[in-house]
Write a structure and sequence with these properties.
- By secondary structure, the protein is of the alpha+beta class.
- The chain has one domain (2-127): 60s Ribosomal Protein L30, Chain: A.
- It is built from two helices and six strands; from the N terminus they run βββαβαββ.
- The strands form two sheets. A four-stranded mixed β-sheet has the order 3-6-4-5, with helices on one face. It has a two-stranded antiparallel sheet with strand order 1-2.
- Helix 2 links the parallel strand 4 (75-82) and strand 5.
Length: 128
């Protein structure tokens, strides 16, 4: 599988250092679509802070990826759902850390969560 970043230089607003307009996946053998993953521990209890929930989310995502013989290096798309817009910077930092600086297409949406303890939910697409 080969990945090709698509960041046009004209006719569109510029991409920032942690953002890419598009990522082309060339010749993938398989895709993994991961449901929205919450910051819950193994007993299903939400972390007590945004930072803990984000750590749990990325740990949970790594477990899911591992079950498909993938790693965070296979992630080609991230969508995060935040309960509050003020969570955006902490969420961004957690994503950048979890992906070890890899820049992939991302979207963050502010929503009302299904359970009041859930501060953030993240879904991914991975390819191999």
């Amino acid at each position: 599988m080969e990945l090709k970043t698509c960041n046009p230089k004209t006719g569109i607003y510029p991409a920032t250092s942690d953002y890419v307009h598009a990522l082309e996946v060339l010749d993938p053998n398989r895709f993994l679509f991961v449901s929205g993953t919450m910051g819950l521990d193994q007993e299903g209890i939400a972390g007590t802070s945004l930072e803990i929930q984000l750590e749990l989310i990325w740990s949970n995502i790594q477990v899911i990826l591992s079950s498909a013989n993938m790693t965070v290096q296979n992630i080609v798309r991230v969508t995060s759902y935040l309960r509050d817009a003020s969570y955006a910077e902490v969420n961004q930092s957690a994503r950048v850390k979890a992906l070890a600086g890899r820049i992939i297409p991302t979207t963050t949406i502010v929503v009302t969560t299904l359970v009041s303890d859930w501060m953030v939910e993240t879904e991914i697409i991975a390819a191999a």
